[in-house]
Amino acid sequence: MPPAILAAELLRLLIGACLVICVGADAEDDFSNNLFTDSAPLLALFVVPLGIITAIIGAIRVGGLSWLKTIIGRARESRVITEAELMSFTSKEICELWNGQEIVRVIGVGLIREVSR
């Protein structure tokens, strides 16, 4: 059999397989797809308010007044702990060190050793 005829037969077989797969969807597949896509707005009703509340609490922890920190239960929390948990930069109080497996944020100044070859 010549290669051109073999390639044409292979292409015809692939197109037929794609058609069988595309037509193979039935009503149950449509129901499950609609169930998940229709439940997304319902899920957003719960997730979005939680995200807004989390953002407000984070803003109060970082720069809020002391009475607002008292309301959310963080009145005795130091600025350093808030900085370590919520902010991504380093300062005099926070540093990032390698602990042998990963980079971790550490409160205070870490012991730094230099290894040379």
Task: Please describe what this structure looks like.
Keywords: Membrane, Signal, Transmembrane, Transmembrane helix. This is ABC transmembrane type-1 domain-containing protein. The protein has 117 residues and is mainly alpha-helical. It has two domains: 3-77, no CATH class; 89-117, no CATH class. Helices cover 62% and strands 9% of the residues. It is flat. The protein starts with a helix and ends in a 10-residue tail after the last strand.
Compact description:
By secondary structure, this protein is mainly alpha-helical. The protein is 62% helix and 9% strand.
Protein topology:
Layout (H helix, E strand, L loop, with lengths): L2 H21 L3 H37 L2 H6 L7 H8 L7 E5 L4 E5 L10
Antiparallel strand pairs: 1-2
Q: Categorize the overall geometry.
A: flat
Quaternary structure:
single chain
Q: What composes the largest sheet?
A: 2 strands, antiparallel
**Main sheet: strand order:** 1-2
